[in-house]
UniProtKB/TrEMBL annotation:
Its cofactor is FAD. Belongs to the oxygen-dependent FAD-linked oxidoreductase family. Residues 46-215 form the FAD-binding PCMH-type domain. SUPFAM superfamilies: FAD-binding/transporter-associated domain-like (SSF56176). Keywords: FAD, Flavoprotein, Oxidoreductase. PANTHER family: BINDING OXIDOREDUCTASE, PUTATIVE (AFU_ORTHOLOGUE AFUA_1G17690)-RELATED, FAD-BINDING PCMH-TYPE DOMAIN-CONTAINING PROTEIN. InterPro entries: FAD-bd_PCMH (IPR016166), FAD-bd_PCMH-like_sf (IPR036318), FAD-bd_PCMH_sub1 (IPR016167), FAD-bd_PCMH_sub2 (IPR016169), FAD-linked_Oxidoreductase (IPR050416), Oxid_FAD_bind_N (IPR006094), Oxy_OxRdtase_FAD_BS (IPR006093). This is FAD-dependent oxidoreductase. The keyword Protein biosynthesis does not apply.
Length: 464
């Protein structure tokens, strides 16, 4: 442990003194207030957060004031945009909520956007669309753009357009020493390296400059079938053969019979194939045709869509739920692995996960960016992600079941994980996700820009 005691002085007195120092300067909220409850809420109800204070700075300078004052009072700092990726309880910490940092400017002549840290992808997509431009965003419009980018980001077009953080041109960021900086390939290049893939380890990002792509429309959507076995087998053979304009993923779904779930999909095991195609629509339809022939789809939403409808490809559920998720990477999805996957999660299995998603990675997402970054596991070609609703009554079974699936797929699993998909926090999370060389460099950069270890995100890399 190399952190000075000052950064661990999580006492009530320190928090009270910090609250007094912030009063009248930056909006800050104590537990029990509606603002504290709202700003520290998470979308996964199994991960409650209990920060000692929540600050909602209204400008980059206010973020710098908050981080500096927290450091002076020995109170550690975490950061949150939307709560979609919350993973730690944050006891005794100050949580910086970025919701007020909602500045957005699209610069069509440059093909870029300046995106405040409080913005969700939906706002960026809507603002860029009138210019025929689109950010390389994730599957869910409600996810925070900046939080997503700090974890790299594999969206519905990742095989074609690459890891989303490859498009970041600059970060405006407050480092743990309380200084507001602009990190680019040439200014503070180590920060620019580590903020792309290193999550919140090196700073509180207040905004990014992001390159957009010319993509007014897409050919995309999803097919849903009741023929789980036939579709999974056909998809696993087909996905590696598709051209680079195609990105695809698959989900074995057990959707409950609830309002909003289409009748043919509710209360049964189905499979969905997601397809995103950036080229000519007729060519995309020809590429997808073999999958459409496998089984008469129950639902087929694939067609030409405006880029503003990109969220319809995955149609992720929105809103807060208690869920347990798990993630692993596979080396290979050949016939034996597919057979095992179907034994583990197919209709005849004991699987209790509501979603078992397999994303085909590779393509442009495997290429190293022109300016190196901290993003791990670029060579991975398959990602498996499970989600199960974990109420007090179901949680133990859902967790056990995720372990059963991971054990069953172990012969095909490769080490590591994608930062955005790997649950957990702290050193165990960092050791699971990043190679030792990346962890060592993140720790070194963290010590330089955050000598007192104020940022909780950096501690995951510095505690050994
Ligand atoms: C429905 C759904 C769909 C998803 N789809 C995809 C997908 O297609 N591809 C993919 O890659 N991921 C996906 N994810 C995962 C998602 O990208 C991560 O959970 C991401 O961290 C969420 O960011 P957020 O800001 O919304 O969440 P938050 O909970 O607000 O933040 C999560 C973490 O991001 C970091 N962070 C957030 N804001 C900042 C900041 N201003 N400065 C520094 N660090 C910050 C911190 O480490 C924070 O703990 C999905 C998640 C959900 C819930």
């Amino acid at each position: 442990m190399d952190l000075p005691p000052r950064a661990d002085a999580r006492t009530d007195a320190a928090v009270a003194a910090l609250g007094a120092a912030l009063a009248g300067r930056v909006p800050a909220h104590v537990p029990g207030t509606p603002e504290h409850t709202a700003l520290s809420a998470t979308t996964n109800l199994t991960v409650p957060q209990r920060p000692a204070l929540v600050a909602a700075p209204r400008s980059p300078q206010e973020v710098a004031d908050v981080v500096r004052l927290a450091g002076e009072h020995g109170v550690p700092v975490a950061v949150q945009g939307t709560g979609h990726g919350a993973s730690a309880p944050l006891d005794g910490a100050l949580l910086v909520s970025t919701v007020e940092l909602d500045h957005l400017a699209v610069l069509p002549a440059r093909g870029t956007a300046h995106v405040g840290a409080g913005l969700r992808w939906s706002r960026v997509v809507e603002a860029a669309a009138p210019y025929g431009l689109m950010p390389v965003c994730g599957s869910a419009p409600s996810v925070g753009a900046v939080g997503y980018l700090t974890g790299g980001g594999h969206g519905p077009l990742a095989r074609t357009l690459g890891v989303s953080s490859d498009r970041v041109r600059a970060f405006d960021v407050v480092t743990g020493d309380g200084v507001l900086r602009r990190a680019t390939p040439t200014d503070d290049p180590d920060l620019f390296w580590g903020l792309r893939g290193g999550r919140g380890a090196l700073g509180v990002v207040v905004a990014v400059d992001l390159a957009l792509v010319d993509q007014p429309t897409l050919y995309g959507g999803s097919l849903w079938s009741a023929d789980v076995e036939g579709t999974v087998q056909a998809w696993a053979r087909w996905a590696p053969t598709v051209p680079p304009q195609a990105s695809t993923s698959l989900g074995v779904m057990r959707l409950p019979a609830l309002p909003g779930v289409p009748e043919p999909l509710a209360g049964r095991t189905t499979v969905t194939v997601r397809f995103g195609w950036t080229g000519d629509a007729d060519e995309g339809a020809a590429v997808l045709a073999p999958l459409r022939r496998v089984a008469a789809p129950l639902v087929d939403t694939v067609g030409v869509i405006p880029c503003t409808a990109i969220g319809s490809i995955h149609a992720d559920p929105d809103g807060a739920l208690p869920v347990h998720d798990s993630h692993l990477l596979l080396e290979d999805l050949g016939p034996e692995a597919v057979e095992r996957l179907l034994e583990l999660v197919g209709p005849a299995s004991s699987c209790v996960q509501n979603v078992v998603e397999v994303r085909h990675l590779g393509g442009a997402a495997s290429r190293q960016p022109a300016v190196p970054d901290a993003m791990p596991s670029r060579a991975a070609t398959w990602s498996v992600f499970t989600v199960g609703v974990a109420t007090p009554a179901t949680a133990a079974a859902v967790v056990d079941d995720a372990g059963r699936i991971a054990a069953g797929l172990a012969p095909w699993t490769r080490p590591g994980g994608l930062p955005n998909f790997t649950a957990g926090h702290g050193t165990a999370w960092a050791e699971r996700v990043y190679p030792a060389v990346t962890r060592a460099r993140l720790a070194e950069v963290s010590r330089r820009y955050d000598p007192d270890g104020v940022l909780l995100g950096g501690r995951a890399f510095r505690t050994r």
